[in-house]
Amino acid sequence: MSETVVVQNVYKKYKMHKSSKEKLLDIILPRGYGEDFYALQNISFKAYQGDVIGLVGVNGSGKSTLSNIIAGVIPPTFGEVTSIGTTSIIAISSGLNNQLTGRENIELKCLMLGFKKKEIKEMEPEIIEFADIGKFIDQPVKKYSSGMKSRLGFAISVTVNPDILIVDEALSVGDQIFAQKSKNKMFEFKEKGKTIFFVSHSMGQIKEFCEKAIWLEYGEIKQFGPVNNVIPEYEKFLKEYKSMTNEQQKKFREEVMQKQRGLATI
Ligand SMILES: Nc1ncnc2c1ncn2[C@@H]1O[C@H](COP(=O)(O)OP(=O)(O)OP(=O)(O)O)[C@@H](O)[C@H]1O
Fold first, then answer.
1. Residue 216 CA: which ligand 1 atom is closest?
2. pLDDT tens digits, residue range 126-169?
3. Could you give the C-alpha distances from 176 to 134, 145, 179, 182, 216, in angstroms and in order?
4. Are residues 234 and 251 in the same domain?
5. ipTM of the complex
6. Which atom of ligand 1 is nearest to the CA of 62?
7. Are residues 120 and 147 in the same domain?
8. Are 183 and 190 in contact (CB under 8 A)?
């Protein structure tokens, strides 16, 4: 099985700003301003053709940041990501331009992915049919509901037929019929041997769909392995976390923040 995504020692550092003044200082000052905060630390793993990998972790553990880095939407601060093949990300905030119509967004996104105008015209009917948002396709996206946006984002991302697909919570919005249609499409991709990363808070969906899982904690990989090993451990942690008192949960979150604040050894 050949490698499709190689992630090596990836870190993502953000600055914490308490006010817009601090944000401004960060831009003006040569060394920047603000406390360092690591959304990701020391992330390394390999994905292979046909891998379907679930990304799990509590809120703020770094799932979306890692998805965006794999997709090339944002760069890592340190480290390297090598992708063999075309990559497409499906996320609720899927980078649609609010001022443009759905149809114009199709063209823009496909142009950005490197397609020629003729190819886009050929793909357009398929995208519109999959999105199934009727006359809204010629309305500006700012008039769309969140479900409509995710339908259009999903339709574009799957129709361009990427080798590597990153699905970030996309199945949690939209109605049941669309969710089923999306699920079928993803199973179709899985059968074709594409590499899929799947972010979800639904352990049911992760267990149903993925063979491997990455559990992120404090922006680090806590566990990576077969879904049947990782998810029971993660569920055990979730159960313990839920049974904590508010005070204990607060302490845990503070420890998390502390760990992400520049304690990284690079
Ligand atoms: N642009 C940014 N600037 C500063 N901090 C950021 C930025 N984007 C994300 N973060 C921080 O990085 C951490 C990881 O965020 P991320 O969205 O990747 O987590 P997540 O696991 O996807 O969370 P959720 O389950 O809530 O979607 C969070 O603490 C978040 O506040």
1. 21
2. 999 999 999 999 999 999 988 888 889 889 988 988 889 998 87
3. 18, 16, 5, 10, 29
4. yes
5. 0.96
6. 18
7. yes
8. no
